[in-house]
C-alpha cells in the first residue's frame, strides 16, 4: 500500500476519535443544562459563593468573600501554606467605587 | 514521475515522498512527535480544566446575593451586630436585608473542614427548593428536636457514613459541656455536588450553638437590591454609614470568578511558561539548521531536476503531517484526560490538602479561540522552521551543497 494511503487511514482514525469526543462533549453539555436548574435553586437557597473543590482553608473555600488580610498576606499570588493556594488568584477589588477621588475624574 | 498528473495526484506523490523522508529519520521524528504531543497535551489540559472550573462557577453566579455585607475589625472579619440592620433597610432601593449564620467546623479526627450554614430548613421543604434535596424517610417521632436537624452534602454524608454517623452527627468541641446531636434529614443531590459537597446546612438556631455565635450577632448580612443599577451606590452608602463594614457585590464576586484562573494566575502562567519554553527549545533545535544529510538530499534532488517549489512542498507536508497529527493527538488526549479520566494528578493541585472534595466531573468548556491558539503556537512556528532552512538549501547551487555537505 502507498504511504499516502496509510496517512489517509490515520486521518480517518483521528476523525473518528474526534467524532467520539465531540459526541461526549455534546452529551455532557446537555446533561449540564439539565442540572443547571437544580444548581441555580441551590445557589438561591444557599447564597455562599465558590466551588467546593478546596475545603482545606476558609480563604480557599470562599475566597471571593474572604478576609482581605488573611490569604496572600505578603504579596499577590505568593507561595501559600496550602498547596491549593498556588492555583488561585487573590480577589480583585480594583473596580470598587472609591469615595475619595484623586485628580481629575475620568470622562 | 513527480510533475505529471492532476494536482491531487501530484500532492499524493509528494506526500508519499514526505512520509518516506520522515520514516527515514524515524528515531528523531518519533522523539519530536512525542515531545510535541506532550506539550500540546499539557497546555490544553491546563486550559481545559481552568476553563471548565470558571464556567462551573459562572453558571450559577447570577443567583448570588446582590450585596454581601461583612464587618472588618483589626483587618479580620468579625460578627455583624443586629443594630446595623435597620439603617441598611432604610436605604432607598433596598428590598430586604437577610442575616446569615455560617462558618466552618474542623473535625480534627478526620482532618475534614465542613462548611456550616444556618437556615430555616422548612424553606427547603417547600416549592422548587424541595428538589435539591434527597429527603430521607424519617421514622415517626424523629422530629423531636426541630432545631437540631441538618441536610448535608454528598461528601460529608460519605465521610459520616464511614464513621457510622449517617443518621445523626454529634458536634463536639472540648470546651463544650456536652456534644450537640443533629439528625441528618436529607442529603443534597449529586447534581449540586460541586457547590454542596462540604456543606452542612443546619437549622439556624442549631447552627448558632455549633458556631458559638452570641445572640443578636450574625456572620454576615445579605442585601437584596431589585434594581441592578443601584447596587454599587447602595454598597457605597452602606460603607459610608458604617466604615467598619465591607461590601462585596455580585459583580465583584463574578470578577473574582473570571480572574481566578486567568492569565494572571500563578498556576496558569507557570505551567504555560514552562511549556512555551520547552517548545522554544524544540523549535530552536529544528531551526538551527538542516543536518548534512538533509542538505545533501536537497542538493541531489535539485541536481536531478526537482523544482524548488516541489522541494518546499515536500518539507511543508513533512512539517504539516508531524505537527498536525501531534497537535490533534495532544488535544484529544487532553480532552479524554480531563473529562473522561477526571484529571488524576492535575486535580490534586486544586484539591490540595482537602479531605472533602467532589468527583471532578466537570462540564466541558472548549473555546474555539483556544483551539486556534494551540494551532498558532504549535503548527505555525514548526512549519516556519521546517520550510525556511529547506528553502535556503534549495536556492543554493546544488553543486556547492553536495560538495560542502
Strand content of chain A: under 5%
The H-and-E topology of chain A, N to C, reads as: HH
Low-confidence runs of chain B? none
Number of domains of chain B: 2
Percent of residues in beta strands of chain B: 15-25%
Q: Short description, anyone?
A:
The complex is a heterodimer of chains A (107) and B (405). With 107 residues, chain A is an all-alpha fold. Chain A has two domains: 1-47; 48-91, no CATH class.
Q: What is the fold's blueprint, element by element?
A:
The complex is a heterodimer of chains A (107) and B (405).
Chain A: H1 3-45, H2 58-61
Chain B: H1 7-24, H2 26-59, E1 67-73, E2 76-78, E3 80-81, H3 85-89, E4 96-107, E5 112-119, H4 121-124, E6 133-135, E7 149-152, H5 154-162, E8 168-171, E9 180-188, H6 193-196, E10 199-203, H7 204-210, E11 217-218, E12 220-224, H8 231-241, E13 245-249, H9 250-260, H10 266-287, H11 292-303, H12 308-340, H13 347-351, H14 368-394, H15 398-404
Parallel strand pairs in B: 5-10, 7-9
Antiparallel strand pairs in B: 1-2, 1-12, 1-13, 3-11, 4-5, 4-12, 6-9, 7-10, 8-9
Could you please describe the fold and organization of this structure?
The complex is a heterodimer of chains A (107) and B (405). With 107 residues, chain A is mainly alpha-helical. Chain A has two domains: 1-47; 48-91, no CATH class. Chain A is 44% helix and 0% strand. Chain A is built from two helices and no strands. Chain A has helices at 3-45, 58-61. The radius of gyration of chain A is 24 Å and the shape is elongated. With 405 residues, chain B is α+β, with helices and mostly antiparallel strands. Chain B folds into two domains: 7-59 and 261-404, no CATH class; 65-260, no CATH class. In chain B, the strands form two sheets. In chain B, strands 1, 2, 4, 5, 6, 7, 8, 9, 10, 12 and 13 form an eleven-stranded mixed sheet that branches. A two-stranded antiparallel ribbon of chain B has the order 3-11. In chain B, helix 2 (26-59) packs across helix 12 and helix 10 (266-287) packs parallel to helix 14. The two termini of chain B are 27 Å apart. At the A-B interface, helix 1 and helix 2 of A face helix 1, helix 2, strand 1, strand 4 and strand 5 of B.
Amino acid at each position: 500500500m502507498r504511504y499516502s494511503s496509510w496517512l489517509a487511514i490515520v486521518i480517518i482514525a483521528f476523525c473518528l476519535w474526534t467524532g467520539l469526543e465531540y459526541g461526549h462533549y455534546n452529551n455532557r453539555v446537555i446533561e449540564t443544562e439539565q442540572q443547571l436548574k437544580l444548581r441555580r435553586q441551590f445557589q438561591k437557597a444557599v447564597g455562599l459563593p465558590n466551588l467546593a473543590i478546596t475545603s482545606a482553608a476558609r480563604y480557599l473555600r470562599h475566597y471571593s468573600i474572604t478576609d482581605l488580610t488573611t490569604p496572600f498576606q505578603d504579596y499577590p499570588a505568593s507561595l501559600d501554606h496550602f498547596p491549593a493556594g498556588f492555583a488561585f488568584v487573590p480577589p480583585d477589588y480594583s473596580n470598587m467605587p472609591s469615595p475619595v477621588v484623586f485628580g481629575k475624574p475620568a470622562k | 514521475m513527480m510533475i505529471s498528473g492532476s494536482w491531487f495526484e501530484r500532492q499524493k506523490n509528494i506526500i508519499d515522498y514526505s512520509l518516506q523522508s520522515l520514516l527515514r529519520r524515524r528515531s528523531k521524528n518519533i522523539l519530536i512527535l512525542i515531545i510535541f504531543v506532550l506539550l500540546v497535551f499539557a497546555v490544553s489540559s491546563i486550559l481545559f480544566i481552568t476553563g471548565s472550573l470558571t464556567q462551573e462557577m459562572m453558571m450559577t453566579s447570577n443567583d448570588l446575593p446582590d450585596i454581601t455585607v461583612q464587618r472588618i475589625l483589626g483587618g479580620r472579619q468579625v460578627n455583624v451586630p443586629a443594630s446595623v440592620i435597620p439603617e441598611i433597610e432604610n436605604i432607598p432601593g433596598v428590598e430586604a436585608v437577610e442575616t446569615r449564620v455560617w462558618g466552618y467546623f474542623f473535625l480534627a479526627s478526620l482532618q475534614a473542614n465542613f462548611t456550616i450554614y444556618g437556615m430555616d430548613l422548612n424553606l427547603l421543604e417547600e416549592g422548587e427548593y424541595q428538589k435539591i434535596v434527597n429527603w430521607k424517610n424519617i421514622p415517626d417521632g424523629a422530629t423531636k428536636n426541630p432545631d437540631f436537624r441538618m441536610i448535608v452534602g454528598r461528601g460529608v454524608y460519605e465521610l459520616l457514613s464511614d464513621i457510622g454517623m449517617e443518621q445523626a452527627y454529634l458536634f463536639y468541641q472540648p470546651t463544650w459541656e456536652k456534644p450537640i446531636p443533629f439528625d441528618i434529614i436529607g442529603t443534597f443531590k449529586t447534581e449540586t455536588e460541586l457547590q454542596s459537597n462540604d456543606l452542612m446546612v443546619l437549622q439556624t438556631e442549631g447552627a448558632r450553638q455549633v458556631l458559638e455565635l452570641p445572640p443578636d450577632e450574625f456572620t454576615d448580612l445579605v442585601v437584596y437590591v431589585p434594581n441592578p443599577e443601584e447596587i454599587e451606590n447602595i454598597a457605597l452608602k452602606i460603607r459610608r454609614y458604617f466604615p467598619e463594614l465591607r461590601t462585596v457585590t455580585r459583580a465583584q464576586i463574578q470578577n473574582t470568578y473570571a480572574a481566578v484562573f486567568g492569565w494572571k494566575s500563578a498556576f496558569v502562567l507557570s505551567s504555560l511558561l514552562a511549556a512555551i519554553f520547552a517548545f522554544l527549545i524544540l523549535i530552536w533545535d529544528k531551526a538551527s539548521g538542516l543536518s548534512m544529510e538533509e542538505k545533501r538530499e536537497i542538493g541531489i534532488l535539485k541536481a536531478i531536476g526537482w523544482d524548488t517549489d516541489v522541494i518546499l512542498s515536500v518539507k511543508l507536508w513533512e512539517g504539516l503531517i508531524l505537527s498536525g497529527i501531534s497537535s490533534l493527538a495532544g488535544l484529544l488526549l487532553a480532552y479524554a484526560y480531563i473529562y473522561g479520566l477526571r484529571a488524576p494528578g492535575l486535580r490534586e493541585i486544586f484539591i490540595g490538602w482537602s479531605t472533602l472534595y467532589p468527583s471532578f466531573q466537570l462540564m466541558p468548556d472548549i473555546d474555539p479561540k483556544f483551539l486556534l491558539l494551540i494551532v498558532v503556537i504549535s503548527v505555525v512556528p514548526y512549519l516556519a522552521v521546517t520550510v525556511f532552512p529547506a528553502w535556503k538549501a534549495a536556492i543554493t547551487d546544488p553543486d556547492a551543497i553536495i560538495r560542502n555537505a
